[in-house]
Amino acid sequence: MSSENFDNLRLELRRGGLVVAVLAALHSEQYGYTLRKIMADHGIEIDEGTLYPLLRRLEIQGLLKSKWREEQKRNKRFYQLTAAGKQILQQLLTEWRNMDSSINSILKEYGHATSRTVSASR
Amino acid sequence: MSSENFDNLRLELRRGGLVVAVLAALHSEQYGYTLRKIMADHGIEIDEGTLYPLLRRLEIQGLLKSKWREEQKRNKRFYQLTAAGKQILQQLLTEWRNMDSSINSILKEYGHATSRTVSASR
DNA sequence: ACATCATACTGTGTTATACATAGTATATGT
DNA sequence: ACATATACTATGTATAACACAGTATGATGT
Question: Which domains does chain B have, with CATH numbers?
Fold first, then answer.
């Protein structure tokens, strides 16, 4: 069942990228609903049932701060990076870049046709 | 406890990259012990307690095939990508690239100084 | 001959979290 | 009045790297 395997592996891949992407978007403050749209605009579909618990958890971990504000007759919860969050984001970006370099390096040495196609597109 | 958070988030990030990197290295057949060294040479430290179960799981999922062979007086288990494995690897690479593009795109639009430093280094 | 290290691998419980699913409240459009 | 969009909260399930422990055996050092 290759497609099922791919789905699981794809989820694993998303897990790491998701946090980096969400933190990256919160250099400027956003509330959940528009953050979800921003992520979608940049190619990352994320269900609200996944996004809100993630935001909550990142706040608990001290990487985000939030405050309620009423705008356009609606109560919205705005999130933004903390100083610690900016620092962690930098570190995670470094990890992401390092993993990317490792993968490319391995592909260059061991990936046959795949190495060529990847290099060509970058 | 930022450093503890970073460790957990780093693990999440690794989860996706790890499978891609291992599959990429197995275009040519390797046995576990040298595969571990190859990964280390390319910047990915992975404990044997993590690598062997991963290889086992990927074989069960049909992405790898293995066979025992005696070399230099030792029994070694050689692994290599199957046709399905090559296909899944391509798809995962595409997912990885898409996530990377999304992150860069978000950084470009929302990341302040970080956006500049990342662009400069690439 | 024996101790130590390197090689080569197997087994399994713990921990963490996206996902899936369900839900509430309220403003706006038809 | 009803449907849809906006904006969010709550929680159990499924998954897998890690951490840790272990076995077997060849090579090397004393």
Answer: 2-121 (1.10.10.10)
Residue B18 CB lies within 7 Å of the nucleic strand D = yes
ipTM tops the 0.90 cut: no
User: What is the DSSP secondary-structure string of B23-61?
Assistant: HHHTTS-EEHHHHHHHHHHTT----HHHHHHHHHHHHHT
| d(CA B25, C1' D23) / Å | 28
Q: Which residue is nearest to nucleotide D14 (CA to C1')?
A: A8
**C1' (D19) to CA (A12) span, angstroms:** 20
- Nearest CA of chain A to the CA of B2: how many Å? 7
Q: Is B45's CB less than 7 Å from nucleic acid strand D?
A: no
For chain B (122 residues), the mean pLDDT of every run of 10, in chain order, is 78 90 94 95 93 94 93 93 94 94 94 51 40
Which regions of B64-116 does DSSP assign to beta strands (E)?
64-71, 74-81
Instruction: Name the phi and psi angles at B7, rounded to 5.
Output: -60, -45
